[in-house]
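User:
Can I borrow your eye for a moment on a structure tokenisation matter? Would you put together a sequence-and-structure record for a protein of your own picking? Please set it down just below, with no commentary around it:
AI:
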Amino acid sequence: MLKYTLFTFSALFFTSTVANADWQYTKWGMTVDEVMRSSKLRAKTPTKVNIAANGHILHLLSAPYKANSFKFTAEFWFNKNNKRLNMVKLVLINLSQCNEITSNMRDIYGIPYYQNKTDYSIVTKWHDEINKNSILMSEYGNATCSIQYSSRNTPTKSGL
């Protein structure tokens, strides 16, 4: 019964975070100012602006985020060229909860379409077909545990 209750509560939390193909109080494509306003000014400029490895997106805002007993830092990543919201990355603060979140994600989204395990990391990916989001969960030992939400790009049918 306790497991069922936890699953139901967790399902409500995680599915609400991606409702309407967006994340919580944001919509894909928002500007930096729009995200700040929609966060009720909780989102702040990070001390260091990060650039993703591919160089196409910038981490321009962060905000505290809490769901159930999980505490995160929500990082808002924007397209480098047009400064529109491209991705939200939830970085778990209490790393001892990573296994619990992984279990919840599997209960909600099912078997991932991709998983790569090494001695040092686990990378897992799901497609949220209902809300049209891509979800990537990264676990790097005791260093970090995060969940990334982004809009799922639908391929065009035009071919080559």
Summary: The chain has a mean pLDDT of 84. The first strand starts at residue 50 and ends at 51. DSSP finds three helices and eight strands in the chain.
